From TrEMBL:
Keywords: Hydrolase, Metalloprotease, Protease, Zinc. The keyword Protease applies. Pfam families: Peptidase_M14. It comes from Butyrivibrio fibrisolvens. Coiled coil: none annotated. It comes from the Bacteria. The keyword Phosphoprotein does not apply. Residues 32-308 form the Peptidase M14 domain. Belongs to the peptidase M14 family. This is Peptidase M14 domain-containing protein. The active site is at E285 (proton donor/acceptor). PANTHER family: PROTEASE FAMILY M14 CARBOXYPEPTIDASE A,B (PTHR11705), SLL0236 PROTEIN (PTHR11705:SF143). GO terms for biological process: proteolysis.
Length: 322
C-alpha cells in the first residue's frame, strides 16, 4: 500500500506544467546550457511581456564583469516580501532556470498573489562561478584571472566566485569556522580574506538591509533535501524556519534534514539572514546529479517546486499591519 502511495506522489511531481497563460509566449527554456546571457535576455522578455508584475535591475560588478540580476516579481510595496536566490555556488547552475521558469509561471498565472506578495529573486548570485563551471578558464577575458582559474582547475566542480572565494562562507557571522575549509583561494571551501570581501556577498546583504523580508528561500544542488537549522539561532527563529521548511516539504516532497550537532555558524547566507537579520527561511537542495550531467532533471525540479512559493507566501499576512 505504501509503495502505491509513493508512486502516485512521484508521478504527480513529474507532470509537465505549461508555464504560460493563454496566448503568452514561452520565455524560459530548459534546452541547452542556461548561461548568464540567456538569463538576462529572459529577464528582459519577462519584464516586457509582464510589465505589471515583473521588473529587474542589475547590481554591482563582479571580477569577470558581470552585473548581478535582481528580478522583482509582484507589487514592490506588497505586504508580503520573500527573498529567493539561486546559484550562489557556481557548479549548481541548474537552479537558475528553475527559479526563472517559476517566475514566468507566477507572472502569467498568479496575478492576485502578486498583488499581495513580492518575490525579490536573485536567480544567479554568482555569475562568475557559473560561467567558470560552464566554460572553464575562458570565462575570464582578463589574463590574470584566466591564469588563476586555469591553475586551480576543477571547472565543473567550481563553487566559488572568480576570486576563488565561496560566497556561502563569506558572510560576517562564524566567518572562517567551517570544519572543512581550504587555506587559500580555491574552487571551493575558502571563506575569503575577510567577511563580506566579495561583491556577491554584499549584494545579498544590501537586499536584506533594504527590504523587510518575511522569509528567504535559497536554491542549491543537490540531495533532494531541505535545511533550515542555523546553530545558535533563537527558538522563535528555529520554529519559524522549521514551519517554512515543512511547507516546502509538503509542496515538493523533499526531505527535511536537521543536524543539531552543528554548534556554531560558519559564514553562510543562512547564518547571516537568520541570526543577524532576523529573517527565517530554508535552503532547498534540488536533484541528485550535478551539471553538466543530468540536464533532464531541471523540468522535474520545476514541476516539483512550482507551488511552493505560493504555499510559503500563505504563511504570512496578506495585508499591511499598519
Ligand atoms: Zn550549494
Amino acid at each position: 500500500m505504501m509503495m502505491v502511495l509513493v508512486i502516485a506522489v512521484s508521478l504527480a511531481y513529474t507532470n509537465t506544467i505549461d508555464s504560460s497563460a493563454e496566448g503568452a509566449p514561452e520565455i524560459v527554456s530548459f534546452e541547452g546550457i542556461y548561461t548568464y546571457e540567456r538569463m538576462l535576455l529572459d529577464a528582459q522578455a519577462l519584464s516586457t511581456y509582464y510589465p505589471d508584475v515583473v521588473s529587474y535591475e542589475l547590481r554591482a560588478q563582479t571580477a569577470l564583469g558581470h552585473q548581478i540580476l535582481v528580478l522583482r516579481l509582484g507589487n514592490p510595496s506588497a505586504p508580503r516580501q520573500i527573498l529567493v536566490h539561486a546559484s550562489i555556488h557556481g557548479r549548481e547552475y541548474y537552479v537558475t532556470p528553475l527559479v526563472m521558469k517559476m517566475a514566468e509561471y507566477y507572472a502569467a498565472n498568479e496575478k492576485e498573489l502578486l498583488s499581495t506578495t513580492c518575490f525579490t529573486i536573485v536567480p544567479m548570485v554568482n555569475p562568475d562561478g557559473v560561467s567558470i563551471a560552464q566554460s572553464g578558464a575562458i570565462a575570464a577575458s582578463d589574463a590574470n584571472y584566466q591564469a588563476f582559474i586555469g591553475f586551480i582547475g576543477h571547472y565543473s566542480a567550481w563553487k566559488s566566485n572568480a576570486n576563488g572565494v565561496d560566497i556561502n562562507r563569506n558572510f560576517p557571522i562564524g566567518f572562517g569556522l567551517a570544519e572543512t575549509r581550504m587555506p587559500s583561494n580555491s574552487y571551493a571551501f575558502y571563506e575569503g580574506i575577510a567577511p563580506s570581501s566579495e561583491v556577491e556577498t554584499t549584494v545579498l546583504e544590501q537586499l536584506l538591509s533594504e527590504n523587510s523580508f518575511d522569509c528567504y528561500l535559497a536554491y542549491h544542488m543537490r540531495g533532494n533535501l531541505i535545511y533550515f537549522y542555523t546553530p545558535t539561532c533563537s527558538p522563535e527563529m528555529f520554529a519559524m524556519s522549521q514551519l517554512i521548511a515543512a511547507t516546502v516539504h509538503n509542496s515538493t516532497g523533499y526531505r527535511i534534514d536537521v543536524d543539531l550537532s552543528d554548534t556554531h555558524p560558519n559564514g553562510s547566507f543562512a547564518d547571516y539572514a537568520q541570526i543577524m537579520c532576523g529573517v527565517p527561511g530554508c535552503t532547498i537542495e534540488c536533484g541528485t546529479t550535478l551539471p553538466p550531467a543530468g540536464a533532464d532533471q531541471v523540468a522535474g525540479f520545476y514541476s516539483r517546486n512550482l507551488y511552493s512559493w505560493k504555499n510559503v507566501a500563505s504563511l504570512f499576512a496578506s495585508e499591511a499591519s499598519n
